[in-house]
Amino acid sequence: MRIIILICRQFGFLILLSVLIPCIHAEPQKKNSGKYVGSEKCGECHHHYYHGWKTTLHSRQEQEVIIEGPDKNVLGDFSSKDPDLTFTLDDVDLLVGSRLKQRYAKKIGNDYYMLPAQWNVKTKEWVAYNPKNDWWTKGDIYPKEWNRRPTSKLCEGCHTTGFNIETKIPSERNISCESCHGPGSLHVEKKGEGHIINPVKLSSERGNMVCFQCHMSGRPPEGEFEKYAWPVGYKPGDDFNKYWVYARPTGENIYELWADGFAHKNRVQGNTFIQSKMYSNRLRCFTCHDPHGSRYSSFTVKSGKNNSLCLSCHGENSPHAVFKINLSEHTHHKADSSGSRCIECHMPKTGKNAVRWDARDHSFTFISPLSTIRFGTPNGCNNCHTHTDKTPEWAFNEVIKWKFD
Ligand code: HEC
Ligand code: HEC
Ligand code: HEC
Ligand code: HEC
Ligand code: HEC
Ligand code: HEC
Ligand code: HEC
Ligand code: HEC
Asked: Where are the domains of the chain?
């Protein structure tokens, strides 16, 4: 009898497990079908989120040209005699970007094409824009003439929302609410009941994918959409891996990443974050960034510049504390020194966005001066200690002293 009960218990347990396991693995939210309605519609009920989002650069993607007045958005100096500037403002139908660089598009037929010069915001200069190192510039996938590189294939999926590859018209020329929440017509019809993706309710893996769709360099798998430079068909909630093969460290310096995996380019936040223990500990991009705006640069939830963001989890007496009494214990710089800022050592500027090096790494690993010696990867120490006698070898020795003193 006992044995029978035991067996039943055992089986009952197995049956329970077989029911539970798929539940645990199933995504709590299903992909939502429906149509795109546009951010303004969402704003009718979610004012706070709408106005917050408006303060982010996601809401200022592809813009019509405004030359004068308070809304002026052309940053480039079109009166310049720079030889790289080979077109005039009259050629420009659309502009992209404002933070570090601005590019200019001309409409030909029903597609847009990027004109061959870009304006770098910080250095206030024109530089030629003629991509040579992206995968799609290899072979004759897209010839080098600017007017043979349509943005519908090369850019739009990441710079607009709901881009229709047949009509070449997006629902919106922005990274809008629906880029991250999926098309919202059913949600709106039902007056806000369900039918919308909330990324925080997805598994952390799928939640991060919502940002990876644009912030993780790579290329599509072989097949129907292999000549697009963006993940055609992906919607929030989907398994991004079905749409994208992301660039991984190879042990050699490649276009996207340094040999040891750190950011060599902009928009590799996903490629690098995925290497961090924080990723495997289920942090998400939006643990640190609030896509509906914040008062800090890059809409971080707390300031990344004065350490308050990092110290909210790594401060004294927290589970992941990096010091017991004083920050200097960890940083070996005075607590109020710029040399005590987490992000300068743990996410130094190692990648090229407009100029080299102006894009921050997102693997959060301390980048050792040894990486510089081996591969040329910039390291935090020498980004500040730039005197010629302060070589990577010098910095490496200092770090060794800290570790073994
Ligand atoms: C870049 C991606 C992104 C964009 C753009 C975006 N959101 Fe979100 N939204 C998120 C993420 C991620 C969350 C979950 C945040 C969290 O709770 O940590 C979220 C949460 C929300 C929530 C639920 C909040 C709660 O606490 O229940 C609402 C409502 C919302 N967003 C509305 C909007 C609206 C309206 C817009 C456009 C005006 C918008 N979002 C634009 C990513 C985005
Ligand atoms: C007619 C009003 C209305 C419109 C329009 C509307 N919403 Fe909502 N939304 C709501 C209501 C009501 C809720 C539920 C709030 C609650 O009870 O938490 C909600 C909830 C949400 C949530 C949280 C869902 C969750 O599971 O946590 C998100 C995200 C969201 N809306 C995004 C959007 C987006 C994106 C749009 C535009 C496509 C939009 N909403 C348009 C009324 C609206
Ligand atoms: C559909 C594509 C797309 C999605 C989805 C997307 N982004 Fe972005 N993101 C962009 C583009 C394009 C820019 C460049 C904006 C600019 O500089 O004009 C950008 C810029 C940013 C910036 C820098 C803006 C600044 O003000 O410094 C942050 C931070 C950011 N994204 C975080 C996120 C996070 C977090 C998510 C996911 C919740 C996300 N993004 C989802 C395309 C996207
Ligand atoms: C796979 C997605 C993706 C594709 C494809 C893509 N971008 Fe971007 N782009 C981004 C993201 C994400 C950012 C911002 C993040 C960063 O810079 O690190 C960005 C940033 C930019 C910026 C800088 C914005 C600023 O304010 O400094 C410009 C300009 C730009 N992209 C133009 C283009 C053009 C032109 C194309 C096509 C030739 C293109 N992008 C293709 C995702 C993409
Ligand atoms: C929401 C909490 C949270 C925030 C905010 C946070 N961390 Fe972490 N961090 C963690 C957790 C959890 C771990 C994993 C600890 C472990 O596994 O030992 C971790 C691990 C790390 C590690 C060691 C793992 C590795 O991959 O090298 C570094 C370095 C780190 N964090 C730096 C930072 C920096 C820099 C910031 C600010 C930009 C920051 N963290 C913000 C929670 C956080
Ligand atoms: C002056 C440079 C510097 C600054 C500033 C700095 N760190 Fe570090 N951090 C290091 C070094 C060096 C290590 C040791 C790396 C190793 O052992 O490979 C380290 C290790 C860590 C680790 C443990 C990594 C692991 O592998 O377990 C965490 C977590 C961390 N730092 C978080 C922070 C936080 C949070 C801040 C800001 C309060 C910060 N650090 C500021 C240089 C710095
Ligand atoms: C542990 C916190 C943390 C996480 C997780 C995180 N970021 Fe960041 N991110 C930061 C901080 C801090 C900055 C610098 C903010 C500043 O300059 O004020 C930053 C900057 C950025 C920028 C501006 C890029 C640049 O080169 O200046 C972008 C874009 C961005 N993050 C996107 C993302 C995306 C996408 C993810 C997920 C793949 C992500 N972040 C995950 C903390 C984080
Ligand atoms: C964000 C800038 C910054 C970063 C990153 C930084 N430092 Fe410093 N460092 C300073 C400043 C400023 C001082 C001047 C004294 C002070 O404020 O503590 C200094 C002082 C020093 C000193 C003592 C004075 C000297 O020049 O001999 C040493 C040694 C040192 N840093 C080593 C390092 C090492 C090693 C790293 C990388 C792990 C590093 N620093 C990262 C800014 C930085």
From this structure: 28-197, 274-399
